[in-house]
Amino acid sequence: xxxxxxxxxxxxxxxxxxxLLRLPRDIVLVFLALLTSLVLxxxxxxxxxxxxxRRCQEDKARLKQLVKEARRRGDRASVQRIRxxxxxxxxxxxxxxGKPLLASLPIIAVLAVWAFSxxxxxxxxxxxxxxxxxxxxxxxxxxxxxxxxxxxxxAESGWVQRIQPSYGPDGHTVDGGMASWRILAEPRSTPxxxxxxxxxxxxxxxxxxxGRRYATPTVFFSDAAAVIGSELALREYRPFxxxxxxxxxxxxxWIVGYLIIVLPLSLALKPLLRIY
Length: 276
Hints:
Shape: elongated
Order of helices and strands: HHHHHEEEEEEEEEEEEH
Strand content: 15-25%
Number of helices: 6
Distance between the termini: 39 Å
Largest sheet: 6 strands, antiparallel
Number of strands: 12
């Protein structure tokens, strides 16, 4: 059910934003960030009591001045009393923050799911070979694996490969084995099926070669005893070529770049559109 919901949101996102994929990824990211900021700001205008929030903001500004005056007089009791009043006003304003988020959630969900599936990686250019990898348990190392030929696909390294020890980023072997193929795909709009025949099973993963989209980079085979999963060796998209990810928070580079644009925009649009 979750997979169907995900596919439905991506499909709907393609209807709305699919044409943007013809543009450079940086322009797409800026557009999505601007659209998000506009949605959050405009929805806030119609889902919050603007007059109440305006008065709360004015009261907090006045109380801030009173705190400064009380400090100059050395009146600590007044400072504490004014701060308590400001905290109560802050709670009143905070109660109004939930409705804009709930009202924006459907649009933000479509944006987020579509962006996760369409701009996190760079699609192969037409005519550019793609490396397709299949991973196996360590016990399968040394055995032969082969892909079934598919019209439109050419295996530059041959359809048959031997399973080799898998190496980590540091060059050391890790548990398990890997077989890889360099695949050249003729451009077409519908996905290809890359099919692995191994130990009496046929396992397949999608491959897209339209120059705009990419298939899911990693696919796991939970029902296969002798094959763990498959991976497309795609290049990760880095906004403007320099913005990295944040591994400690599991944030991909595009998310970091998106937040860098969205947060200042959202703050700037509120006073610009006179929204509290």
